[in-house]
Amino acid sequence: MRKLILIEVIVALAITLHAQISRNINLSNAGTLSSFFTTEEKSTTTDLTLSGVLDARDFKFMRDTLTALTNLDISNISILAYTGTGGTKSTTNTVYYAATIPDKAFYMDSILVNIILPNSTINIGNNAFNGCSSLNGEIVIPGSITTISSGAFSNCSKLTGIVINEQNTRYSSVDGILYNYQQDSLILCPAGKTGSVTIKNTVKVIATSAFSSCQNITEVIIPNTIIKIEPYTFSKCTSLKEITIPNSVTSIETCAFNECTALNSINLPESIISIGTYAFNQCDSVIEIDIPTSVTSIGGYAFSYCDKLSNVMIPNSISMLSEGVFAGCKKLVKVDIPNSVIFLGKRLFYACTGLTDVTMPDSLTTIREEAFSNCNKLKSINIPATVELIGQYAFYNCTGLRSIYSYAPVHISLSANTLPFWNVNTDSCILYVPVGSAENYREATIWSDFKNIVELNLSSIENPQISKPEINYNSLSGELRIVGVDGETKLNVYNIAGKLCFTNKTDCNASLILQLLPPGIYLIEVRTNNYQITKKIRII
Asked: Which of 147, 165, 241, 395 is most buried, with most CB under 10 Å away?
């Protein structure tokens, strides 16, 4: 038994010694570091201290060949210029400058834990430490550094702080966050930062990707000195739950909040004018979005694949809805498109599999390709007389369609290969057209596929999908009043998750008290045979 224990101790000691192999090397000739290592030492050296001179070839050797290197001290190194094919960036002939940590010096090095940078270094190259997922704690930037290039410390998931030497006159740091010297520009928040972050109120610019992949930040407080959220600023901040966008911000750029999967509310101020492409793509926890009336431009896929998004308010300041803006929003049930909109982009509501009702405005001229493709719960659509173009597969696989109201007396021309209603059951889906137009539609390509074409005096009834604000609500008294609708009316009240909270049949001048419902935002829906009236209210 004692012999067995002794053997185990010896083995453990041998493993420990093997795991902590240190080297101290002085290089008199740059590009020769590889000659100091045996084959075994290349895979076992964990701690390395260098002095003398290095160039880009030596950085490539450390990155690609020293597979166990965790601690590196190059504080007493001078980095020399090099031109050739053996550096860190490319196999083509490349110029590497002196006193510069080369581009991609330790790119995607998942082993390196600590590094002490050279005191003589002036520049840190592009993506020098990008993806160093084990780089731990804080890194100290020497006073000599004048340039920290793009992506230098991006995606370092364990890096909690960047500390600037007090002699540095180009950069500064506060709470481990990298700023320029004047602190009017926030350059980078280390990806290992946790909890709540308050940006200094001297900051005017937050750099592109500054908080990208900070997966443990839960809240960011932005000062009202910021006018633009730059591209990818908060992309993939997967724990970010709250963010306050001040009313100084006028634009939210491409992918600014892309894949912020924990973000549960988006409060956009009235100062916002434009929302960029993919700005809030895959914000899976967002339930409701109220787009302010100041917004005039929404980029492609801006709110796409927000899995829980069930309610969106589109302002009448929008004239075009770009490609894929709400694509893949599976919980979206009802959408009112305001009368200002003339253009629906490609794949606008693609695969919105929960969508049942859409308001099409009388201003609409264009419905692009696959705009409603795979909206298999969509029950009815109206096509205003103003529409001039319906794109290919526009309503493809809308298997739930039971009625289509086409308001144009003369059919919209469709070529045989556009197939806008492909996989719609044209045997059972009723096509309603203006009085005197049935024959025109029966003789037209694509339209003739519908077996039930019914003439209806569409000019004498309101569009069955168009909302008219006929609902009056007093938030103080809780009184809900329905006016201007003839005959029996069905009233439904939904919460922001789309759940039916209250239903009733009433007449046109009914008055109800809704104070019994919990405080919150609700969607009031009134239905008759020819009308759908909706209004968003807040119960306090």
From this structure: 395
Q: Yes or no: say if 158 and 182 are a contact pair by the CB < 8 Å rule.
A: no
pLDDT digits (tens, 9 = 90+) for 236-292: 999 999 888 999 999 999 999 999 999 988 889 999 999 999 999 999 999 999 899
d(C-alpha 83, C-alpha 155), whole Å: 28
* 136-171 tens-digit pLDDT: 999 999 999 999 999 999 999 999 999 999 999 999
- Mind giving me the DSSP string for 104-124? TTTTT-SS--EEE--TT--EE
Q: What domains can you pick out in the chain, each with its CATH number?
A: 21-192 (3.80.10.10), 471-539 (2.60.40.3080)
- 453 bridge partner residues: 431
What span, in angstroms and rounded, lies between the C-alpha atoms of 101 and 293? 48
Which residue from 400, 359, 347, 360 is spatially nearest to 377, judged by alpha carbons?
A: 400
The answer to whether the Cα torsion of 448, 449, 454, 455 is positive or negative is negative
The Cα 165–Cα 180 span in angstroms is 13
The residue ranges of the chain whose pLDDT is under 50 are 1-7, 9-18, 463-469, 529-530
Task: Give pLDDT, residue 259.
Answer: 97
Which distant-in-sequence residues (6+ apart) come within 8 Å of 217 by Cβ?
A: 189, 193, 194, 195, 196, 197, 211, 237, 239, 240
- Listed residue (165, 91, 159, 79) closest to 125, CA to CA: 79
